Request: fold
Amino acid sequence: MINCFATVARGLEELAAQELEQLGAEGVEPGFCGVGFRCDRKHLYTINLWARLPFRILVTIAHVPCRNSDTLYRGIQSIDWDAYLSPGHTLAVKATGKNQQLNHSHFTALQVKNAIVDQQQDRHGERSDVDTDFPDVQVNVHIKDQNATVSLDSSGSSLHRRGYRPAMGTAPLKESLAAALVQLTEWSGDVAFLDPMCGSGTLPIEATLQALNIAPGLFRDETSQGFGFQTWPDYDENLWQKIVQKAKHRQKSKVTVPVVGCDRDLDILSEARTNADYSSVSDHIEFNYTDFADIEPPADSGILICNPPYGERLGHTENLAPFYKQMGDILKQRFKGWTAYILSGNKALTKCIGLRTARKIPIYNGSIPCQFLKYELY
Ligand SMILES: C[S@@+](CC[C@H](N)C(=O)[O-])C[C@H]1O[C@@H](n2cnc3c(N)ncnc32)[C@H](O)[C@@H]1O
Reply:
């Protein structure tokens, strides 16, 4: 069994733990900004392909003492690095966390890199080159107190970068956060879905990918980007191809309810269309150029979800209060029978909505503490 740690956005640990369990992870334990679990190689590949919420799946290979840089160096040298890379593989080391003696991540990473390549040099007379952009093996070292956790990054670049989004809008949600928000609404393609301020389309696209059971990692597989584990010495191409083929067979061909994204900005809407094209879901989403003031529900009932401007990155708080009040009025008057969810990073503004919340879920959008607010409209 392989010991893993999935890094996730703050606040999404429990939801990510559920997702990982559904994908076959064992011994799942949510922690701070991550989830520990165990799995075999097949499930490591499967989780990288299918998990919508984590950023990276780290494979833990050792815990070593790290009271100071010398003990860290010796601890790293006690690992048999031939098991993970040969001098022909390129290498990068990333360090996180700190203690009193090791309080510069860059220095810590350098010390770890030196310990690895010195071992190679002693054993083989040659060593791995460093490639910080596209390393064959990415080593992660996390320092906590006197203990360093040494891991290999099986994902490569962060899994939230699905590879379908060439166009980014002005304040796009991370794909992993959008996927989590959709999961929190429990929408499963059975009722209409509307994002009336869809920006670059992240929410309707992630919702449609879920409804069509499209594995988010398929886009990465089809580009040259790949996953971290694909350049490891033990990479099993046959196993990976089987998992990819199975995923392709499990895709559904149709969403049977309207999925609609609207925005009042034509340029951003065209980005949303481009992104939907890249993610092969454009046939299933209707994008409309509509101001929220003119919005009409596309069905008698459904899920409305949106991430309106809340003054941090777009607009200004003071100008937005009347807009939030208008949002509440429109939801109340036109969306009877719907359930609405609003992600907001500004409590004063959300009060202006003037509707009773059925649920408030604390969530982080990057470093911004937000609330995901649920409104039952009847
Ligand atoms: C924070 S962004 C949404 C980002 C989006 N979730 C994404 O991932 O790209 C807010 C969006 O609301 C749109 N917007 C602001 N006021 C609007 C209005 N009155 N009617 C429609 N769209 C509006 C903006 O054009 C912007 O694209």
Notes: The mean pLDDT is 94. The domain at 2-153 is CATH 3.30.2130.30 (VC0802-like). Residues 169, 171-173, 197-200, 202-203, 263-265, 268, 291-292, 307-309, 314 surround S-adenosylmethionine (CB under 6 Å).
